[in-house]
Amino acid sequence: MSPRIAVATGRRVLRQVRHDPRTIALLLAVPALLLVLMRFIFDGQDQVFQSIGAPLCGLFPFIVMFLISSITMLRERTSGTLERLMTMPMSKLDLLLGYGLAFGALAAAQAIVVCSVGFGLLGLTAPHGAVLVGALAILNAVLGMALGLLLSAFARTEFQAVQFMPAFVFPQILLCGLFVSREDMAPALEAISWLLPFTYAYDALARAVSPTPLGSGIVVDALVVAGTTIGALVLGALTLKRRTP
Amino acid sequence: MPDPAIEIESLEVVRGGNQVVRSISLAIEAGTITGLLGPSGCGKTTLMRSIVGAQITAAGRVKVLGREAGSRELRPLVGYVTQAPSVYGDLTVQENLEYFGRVVGAPGARATETIGTVGLSDYTDRLVASLSGGERARVSLASALLNRPRILILDEPTVGLDPVLRAELWRDFRELADGGVTLLVSSHVMDEAGECDDLLLMREGRLLRQCAPDELRRETGQQDLGRAFLKVIEMAGRS
Ligand SMILES: Nc1ncnc2c1ncn2[C@@H]1O[C@H](COP(=O)(O)OP(=O)(O)OP(=O)(O)O)[C@@H](O)[C@H]1O
Ligand SMILES: [Mg+2]
């Protein structure tokens, strides 16, 4: 493992994104615009907007990074650059850490914009500080990235990779408790929701934006998110093969 | 003979259920240019992938510089240019080389220098996606030259290049070989075969012949290497 190579890889991914200004604009603007849209959908229902909009500020980066990291890795596989890198003196972990650095940085930028708009302009409240929401956003983004990298191994084409979004992310959003509290779901679904990493990402955010004092629950949530991230990265590393058929 | 740079013993490779390399044994001397020739689909790329350790093999042994192909210690010493250019289309030429340079630990100035070697100095800041096929192939080639590897495996590096540039690159290859680098170059262009010290002729996964160009000419009585190769195939078919 070499920090030099991980940092170089992170810089390289950021440079790729930088050559695509439209992606950057979409990355930064879309979550904020969706939040504005929600503000007016829930016009006059401040409570509902708070209970859905505030956690969403920290969940957007998960969703976006899941998608772009899986596409970036897929392109790395199909363009032959992964094969080249695997013949070079680079460890698989360097590659994954590099991705983590780049997408973590992108997630930070995205979180700053969406949190500023949400908590600054739209009247959402973060009783424990918007910074906590931002930090959770980055943690969640890295989880999204790790899952995206892992799943990209199972996609042959970009069409397939895009489909993983509705297949893997949408159910988790529906089950996490954001729209319907988990206790009100069919018992089987509630049980399933506790097996999904996104549920813990949401749970941490729900605690971060609620006025009740922070207990140890948020720490447990964050540890589950971090642990799942590491697990997904390790599994992801296993899908990177130096020798192929 | 000194220890060969590349040594293959009874190599077998199965891809997609078909045996595409059949019991190939060969040795390649250090500091030479070896041409790998054969019809499309005969297994040239597969053989090269086996040498860089990217190919799952079914049987046999591949040793490079005395070590198991693909082993960790070999990675800094072996450069591989894939048949399809494997570079980042959404980065500039300079950015591509800077990145690969950092990965292999080449000194910072090497990127600019290597861009000059492949004749792309005027394209430094162009996005690779906006380059022509031949230009992109040269970026891919440059990326493998960055750390001055001891072994260079080049899969059709001159496809789509004009004769002038091709001649220039072959001069570079010769210079590298004179400096002790071992090159294995696959090609479809038979007049390039004349530039090699040694030739490997493949067909349908088998190694038909390994010999120097002059030997091939003498043996077949054909001055033109393309015809000589056809003759070898003919003779192999008859036996
Ligand atoms: N990924 C793969 N899966 C299954 N079979 C493959 C794969 N890649 C190549 N083959 C088969 O293996 C054989 C050898 O292929 P290879 O790419 O080594 O040929 P080649 O000599 O490099 O051809 P060309 O000159 O066209 O590049 C071919 O019959 C090809 O169809
Ligand atoms: Mg080939």
Topology:
The complex is a heterodimer of chains A (245) and B (239).
Chain A: H1 3-18, H2 21-41, H3 46-78, H4 81-87, H5 92-121, H6 130-152, H7 158-175, H8 187-193, H9 197-208, H10 217-239
Chain B: E1 6-15, E2 18-28, E3 33-37, H1 44-52, E4 59-64, E5 67-68, E6 78-81, H2 93-104, H3 110-117, H4 133-145, E7 151-155, H5 163-178, E8 182-187, H6 190-193, E9 198-203, E10 206-211, H7 213-220, H8 225-238
Parallel strand pairs in B: 3-8, 3-9, 6-7, 7-8
Antiparallel strand pairs in B: 1-2, 1-4, 4-5, 9-10
Helix pairs in contact in B: 2-3, 2-4, 3-4, 7-8
The structure holds adenosine-5'-triphosphate and magnesium ion (MG).
Termini of chain A, distance in Å? 26 Å
User: Number of helix segments of chain B?
Assistant: 8
Average pLDDT of chain B, to the nearest integer? 91
Q: Portion of residues in helices of chain B?
A: 25-40%
Please give the share of residues in helix of chain A: over 70%
Structural class call of chain A reads mainly alpha
Strand-pairing-aware structural class of chain B? alpha/beta
Mean pLDDT of chain A: 93
Largest sheet of chain A: none
Please tag this protein with its features.
heterodimer; A: 245 residues; mainly alpha; B: 239 residues; alpha/beta; six-stranded mixed sheet; 10 strands; globular
Description:
- Chain A is mostly helical.
- Chain A has one domain (3-238).
- Chain A contains ten helices and no strands.
- Chain A has helices spanning 3-18, 21-41, 46-78, 81-87, 92-121, 130-152, 158-175, 187-193, 197-208, 217-239.
- The longest helix of chain A has 33 residues, at 46-78.
- Chain A is globular.
- The model of chain A has no long low-confidence stretch (mean pLDDT 93).
- Chain B has a domain at 82-148.
- Helices cover 35% and strands 26% of the residues of chain B.
- Chain B contains eight helices and ten strands.
- In chain B, the strands form two sheets. A six-stranded mixed β-sheet of chain B has the order 6-7-8-3-9-10, sandwiched between helices. A four-stranded antiparallel β-sheet of chain B has the order 2-1-4-5, with helices on one face.
- The two termini of chain B are 30 Å apart.
- The relative contact order of chain B is 0.17.
- The model of chain B has no long low-confidence stretch (mean pLDDT 91).
- The A-B interface holds A 4-5, 8-9, 11-12, 15-16, 19-20, 79-81, 83-90, 242-245 and B 15-16, 52-56, 70, 72, 75-76, 78, 80, 82, 84-92, 95, 99-100, 102-105, 127, 143.
- Bound molecules: adenosine-5'-triphosphate and magnesium ion.
- Magnesium ion is lined by residues 44-45, 83, 155 of chain B.
